Amino acid sequence: MKRKASLLKKSKNGRKALYIDVENGPEILKYLNDDPSNLIKFNKVVGLILEGGAPRALYDKENFEKGCEHVTAIKLFKGKKNPRIYCQQYADKGKQVFVIVIAELLVKKTSQGLSKRERTIIRRVAKYEYDLS
Q: For the whole model, what pTM was predicted?
């Protein structure tokens, strides 16, 4: 499924780039901007992802089956509100950049493992193909 993504931020060395899905972006940004703590935590996690490596407690792969290896989740508040922002990550050979695309938001994860709903979202994100702008 072809989709568009627009650039949000690049790492200082230019080797990593964070994009956001154009179609789902407004919903994700609205959620982040609705509560200042969401935006503060999001910016902190994004900084860690782009400039070094975020700990697995904040950003980790959601690899539960073949085909979903490149899907990750930003975990803003584990155990509290427990939102997940599902992303797709891959190396863009043409630009020689590691790309992370913020794809979909799950406002509240309710189960400890992956529920049917979460697996459906992860499978959908895994099928997205992006045109980056």
A: 0.93
